[in-house]
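Hey, why these numbers?
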Amino acid sequence: ATMRKNIIVRLAFAASAASAMIELVNALPFVFHIWSGTSGTCKTVAMMAAMSIWGNPKMGGLVKTMNTTKVSIMRTSAFLHSLPYAGDELQTVKDRWNGNFDQLIYQITEGVDRGRGKASGGVEETKTWHNSYIFTGEEPITKASSRSGSKNRVIEVEADEKLLDDGNSTVALIAQNYGFAGRRLVSYLQTMDRAQLQAEYKQYFDAMCRLDTTEKQAMAMSCLLLADRILTTLIFTDETPLSVSDVSR
């Protein structure tokens, strides 16, 4: 739990866990983006630690390089469905998107792939998903010129200092310990009354909406706060759940 002392790392854990709750609370997919203009901040390791909730977070496993195609991202999203999509080093596909990721953000957070024709005739079954996205990069994913629609679907945080004291030891630890929290989280969600879960989510959502934010950003942050509360109930029991004031600074 020492790695969760940094709030960005803690929010990454929440973004990972929240993926399993998006469909349950009728929220929309969202992007949690960690960026830093300098190297050595351990942002990739933080993402790997967050993904260890669900399984092996090694590169090429649950953590993907972003040097891939749009079709691959959509198909992987549909395969994961309610598990988070983790993509490292977003800037590797910057040229492919002409330096603007607005279209990518729109398409992945819609949760529906466009229809594709089959070589044999007809169209493929429409693919859908309900997952969160955790990205890292060297710069923000949105720009001043980005449309409000894309900004509303993203929570991005700058890592202006080292997120973890020892990235190497963290990698060694999670390489041997992964997937346990995900089982407990799924079991908890299966036993929890859905109406109760939605009511708790709405409490966070209503509180976030009273701040200077949009409904879509309030939706994403409410998912993070709900996920953090559940993680502190199940796994990190020595921690106090994050509050709206903790994330509104």
About this structure: Residues 153 and 226 are 17 Å apart (CA to CA). The beta strands are 31-35, 63-65, 85-88, 133-137, 154-158. The longest strand covers residues 31-35. The chain has a mean pLDDT of 90.
